[in-house]
Amino acid sequence: MTRTKFSTNVLMIASLIVNTASAPACAAQTDDAPREAANASAQSKGQKQTPQPTPQPAPAVEDNLETNVSNEIKELAAGGYGSVRESFIFVARDAETYASLRKLNDQLPELGADFFKSNAVVAAFLGERRSGGYGVGIERGAGGLLRVSEKSPPKGAMVTMALTAPFRIVSVGVRDESPLALELDAAWQEAARPYRVDAGEFTRMGGFAGRLEKSTLKGDIRIMRHAQLATLLFALQGTGGAEGAHALQDTASGTVAPDGGLTLTRLDPGSFVPPPRHPLHARGNFNDNEGRLSLTFEVTQAKVNDGYGGQGKLEATATAPPPKKRAVDGDRPM
Are 140 and 173 in contact (CB under 8 A)? Predict the structure, then answer.
């Protein structure tokens, strides 16, 4: 009698454990049952079935240009009485170039190489104006463009009746391997002298296969000058390579020596060099009263053994005379 009662209890406990473990699976089947039944009923009546949700893949990072930049813009310096009296843009993507900018404004903070791994510094000098109330706007535009605009005083506003030279210098987030595209108002566009590429080529090498690919360069460069500084806005295309057309669109600033020698410490290679990649280092010379520009550039180094390198050269000719000076006569900015 005792043994039979004990066996019955064991069977009841085992049954309870099995039923408990099966509960989640049964619940899942129960949740799906009404939908499946409804679909079956709808199908028999010729009605549209309830669609099942389909997981969507996450968008690729490269599909969104704005992922190359951060919307964060931090002001480093600004004012109405800058040292630059003509419209000028200067872009620093490395500590060496930034050191040249600090010579124009010694109030700028010290920034090291680590800072420029994820940031750039953009300085916008509006040029001389006859009164106060003017300023410089820098903000993000569509597709990650950095828009630089002139701010004018409202009509009838009370302003300082003295010569001013507004400027603004900011840091912006940007990935190390990405170009910095600028959208400039008329004041800065008119200050850039256009050049046409007459001849040029770019040779890419590297990758697992270690092959060479040569492209013919064409396109335009716009150049702004101030004292021993220069900013170049590149719009280059490459044709003739095995992998089709390439493009290089970037803004790079550097220094100009008394003999016309130009140095650009950092220039994004665009699609001429696929990732993994390093920026280009460029050197050149202005000739014929800066009517002609010769430029050579090469990848600084490959990041990994299977990375790509490259080098190129171009000859460009100015297609317009130097921009007219807009600074007015009279008292200079303080």
Answer: no
Cα-trace Rg, the chain:
31
Going by C-alpha positions, the residue among 103, 121, 125 that lies closest to residue 112 is 121
Residue 205 confidence (pLDDT): 83
| pLDDT for residue 15 is more than 90 | no
The DSSP element (H or E) to which 173 belongs, if any, is strand 167-174
Annotate 15-50 with DSSP letters as a single string. HHHHHHHHHHHHHHHHHHHHHHHHHHHHHHTTPPPP
| SS3 call for 255 | strand
Strand partners, 172: 73, 120
Sheet holding 135-140, edge to edge: 135-140, 146-151, 182-184
3-state DSSP call for residue 329?
Answer: coil
Give the whole-angstrom CA distance, residue 230 versus residue 234.
13
Q: What is the pTM of this model?
A: 0.76
Residue (of 332, 88, 302) closest to 208 by Cα position: 302
Alpha-carbon 36 to chain mean position? 50
* Structure token pair of residue 69: 């930049």
